[in-house]
Amino acid sequence: MDIDSALLVFGALAQSTRLDVFRLLIRHAPDGLPAGEVARLSAVPQNTMSTHLAILTRAGLIKAQREGRSIRYHADLDRVQALAVYLLKDCCGGDAALCDPIIAELSCC
């Protein structure tokens, strides 16, 4: 990831509804959710939600998969990993132990 890509991601997430939607899709990984369900769970009108989903898609944070007449959205976990690596790559100045608290916080399984 480069700085322009990181800024695109941060710009997409710099709005509360989009951040909430992205976190919702992370919680529903890997199956994702249909667009209507995303809108319902977020209590956002579908036409407004489609704009938010388009912005997240352009930033590469989510992917759309057509299922008949519906579209299912999935968080792009590879993009999340790339962003985390970009942010933390040089965080510890060569001392990997400094990253242990971050890794421990992310360990969910």
Strand and helix layout:
Blueprint: H1 3-13, H2 16-27, E1 33-34, H3 35-42, H4 46-58, E2 62-67, E3 70-75, H5 77-88, H6 100-106
Antiparallel strand pairs: 1-3, 2-3
Please supply descriptive tags for the structure shown above.
single chain; 3 strands; elongated; alpha+beta
Task: Explain how this protein is built.
- Helix 2 (16-27) packs across helix 4 and helix 3 (35-42) packs across helix 4 (46-58).
- The two termini are 27 Å apart.
- Strand 2 (62-67) and strand 3 form a beta hairpin.
- A three-stranded antiparallel beta sheet has the order 1-3-2.
- It has helices at 3-13, 16-27, 35-42, 46-58, 77-88, 100-106, and strands at residues 33-34, 62-67, 70-75.
- Helices cover 58% and strands 13% of the residues.
- The chain has 109 residues and is an alpha+beta fold.
- The protein has six helices and three strands, in the order H-H-E-H-H-E-E-H-H.
Short account of what is shown:
The protein has helices spanning 3-13, 16-27, 35-42, 46-58, 77-88, 100-106, and strands spanning 33-34, 62-67, 70-75. With 109 residues, the chain is an alpha+beta fold. It is elongated, with a radius of gyration of 16 Å.
